Amino acid sequence: MGAASGNTGAGTVSTPIATAFHADWQPGDRALLFGHPSGAALALTPSAGWSAPAGPSWPVSEGSNSRLYAWTRELQSGDAPPTLTPSGAITCAWTMVVLRGVGGIAQVAVSSAAGSPLTLPTLPGVAAGSALVAAAHCRVASSTIPTVITLPGAYTKPVDHATSRPTANANIRAAAGHQVAAASGSYGGDLVTSDVTGSMLALLVELPALGTDAALTATLPALTGQIAAAAADDAAFTAALPALGARWWGQAGSSSGAAARIVTDTTGGRLTTDSAGRWM
Q: pTM of this prediction?
């Protein structure tokens, strides 16, 4: 896991805001980019290829000027760090977390508070081994700039930083952290605090670990002989697919010019049938 962060510093910015990857990123890593702008009528647009997670309506807001965005991407060879283009002169922070060995986003939830502390949202049914990423910020309209955001103790917090405009102006402090779920169950509901009270927003994201689809793992050994020997459609395995959970599904495809099916998941894992209908 790696992280990077930045902000617009001592003034506002109306040109694209540069971001950065953690130095050790590799193709196949999963990046989460969070935008923390101040301004009711101002928008942030990322570079092409970055998508907002399903679920919340982005940006989420607290009060009239505190906003939070999220985008994600599976990093590819040759990728350059994205930019965030504002719709006008903006005060903004950004945080980016890059994870290895995880799939796509399983679920995300958001929460808000008009002052400190803030309660993290709750994610039900988190799988053991999943990565949990929390991101939060505190916006102050003026006066003292927050010097620290404290995430719950289980989270490793690699980034925590603030804009530095004169205190007559608005400023934002943003932080992000992660943990690995030690057991299946619900996570969240604990407190995030800022040393200076202000408008607070937070989100919590689950990303399942690769290779932890217990239903698939349990199903495959019983089907080994069929996968190896079936001369026609592997009916038993095909029938088992719907029970494997939301991460797995069948798709139409082709193999050697004949009808075939592909079984894929949100992590990019894949099984397919050959031209004889055998799973491989």
A: 0.76
